[in-house]
């Protein structure tokens, strides 16, 4: 028994249940063999490694934008790592956001031949939007702010909104810029026919969340998300993590559990952080594999660089 009811439940059932997207390439989507892949999938796998020692002890429940928070609140899933923006009203509504695993900005995609390259030019445009997303509010706000008279066409899932956009039902499609890049690369007949530009100019922190009421589980998920970021900051990779076990740097010894204490504090195996890096790599490796240069999406690190490199990924202290 730990002092976390969620962890006790996960250990009794033998796997972690994570909320996922409906085929969001780069974040959570099954590959052609049915294996789930993506940055949010790796976050879920990291949690499974920490609690159960094994990345494969996971189950993914595809959820729409409207279903996702309810599924977390009602206990249908253990954790929600699903491209969900951290907002005040969501936070106040029975869930706890942990730490961001990806920083993002919202964007519009439009046909190039419309000649539109910025939000201010979108007078009277119709926009395909998924219900239950922050984008619904963004479109209304932009329309009001710039007096654009934007019209929204609402869909209850991502696939339907994308399909409608490509069939000409709307002038624009709004969602996270990375998702639009994925859609353009994988679903457009000719990707060069479409342009993507920032919608509101604001950034959002996509952040895994847990439900209220289990503080120890909240702690565990927070620190699991920190592991790949801290590993990258300390120069620890999937390839060199075994050599790093011999390091005489006290920070690295504490982090990898050769100097015990961190595992005990969270009710986990002392090698929990080592196991995450050994099975999944550091944040840079996870990013490049799923959405960066080693992926079809080829996204720049941008805001998701480490803090020391000018980004927003900041490593906290593992002691």
UniProtKB/TrEMBL annotation:
The keyword Cell membrane does not apply. CDD domains: PBP2_BztA. Residues 15-244 form the Solute-binding protein family 3/N-terminal domain. SUPFAM superfamilies: Periplasmic binding protein-like II. It comes from the Bacteria. The keyword Signal applies. Signal peptide: none annotated. Pfam families: SBP_bac_3. GO terms for biological process: amino acid transport. SMART domains: PBPb. Keywords: Signal, Transport. Belongs to the bacterial solute-binding protein 3 family. This is Amino acid ABC transporter substrate-binding protein. It comes from Knoellia aerolata DSM 18566.
């Amino acid at each position: 028994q730990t002092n976390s009811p969620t962890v006790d439940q996960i250990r009794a059932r033998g796997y972690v249940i994570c909320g996922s997207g409906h085929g969001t390439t780069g974040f959570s989507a099954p590959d052609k063999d049915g294996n789930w892949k993506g940055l949010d999938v790796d976050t879920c796998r990291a949690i499974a490694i920490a609690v159960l020692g094994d990345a494969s002890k996971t189950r993914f429940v595809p959820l729409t934008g409207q279903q996702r928070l309810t599924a977390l609140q009602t206990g249908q899933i253990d954790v929600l790592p699903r491209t969900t923006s951290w907002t005040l009203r969501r936070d106040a509504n029975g869930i706890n956001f942990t730490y961001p695993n990806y920083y993002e900005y919202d964007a519009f995609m439009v046909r190039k031949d419309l000649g539109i390259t910025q939000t201010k030019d979108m007078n009277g445009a119709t926009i395909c939007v998924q219900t239950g997303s922050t984008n619904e509010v963004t479109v209304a706000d932009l329309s009001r702010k710039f007096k654009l008279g934007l019209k929204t066409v609402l869909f209850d899932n991502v696939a339907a909104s994308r399909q409608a956009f490509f069939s000409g039902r709307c002038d624009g499609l709004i969602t996270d810029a990375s998702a639009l890049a994925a859609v353009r690369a994988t679903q457009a007949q000719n990707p060069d026919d479409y342009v993507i530009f920032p919608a509101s100019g604001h950034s959002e922190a996509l952040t895994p969340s847990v439900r209220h009421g289990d503080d120890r589980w909240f702690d565990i998920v927070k620190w699991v998300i920190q592991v790949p970021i801290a590993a990258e900051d300390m120069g620890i990779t999937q390839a060199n993590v075994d050599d790093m076990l011999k390091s005489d740097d006290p920070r690295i010894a504490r982090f990898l559990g050769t100097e015990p204490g961190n595992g005990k504090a969270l009710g986990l195996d002392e090698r929990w952080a080592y196991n995450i890096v050994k099975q999944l790599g550091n944040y840079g490796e996870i990013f490049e594999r799923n959405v960066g240069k080693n992926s079809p999406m080829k996204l720049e690190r941008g805001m998701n660089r480490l803090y020391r490199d000018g980004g927003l990924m900041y490593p906290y202290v593992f002691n």
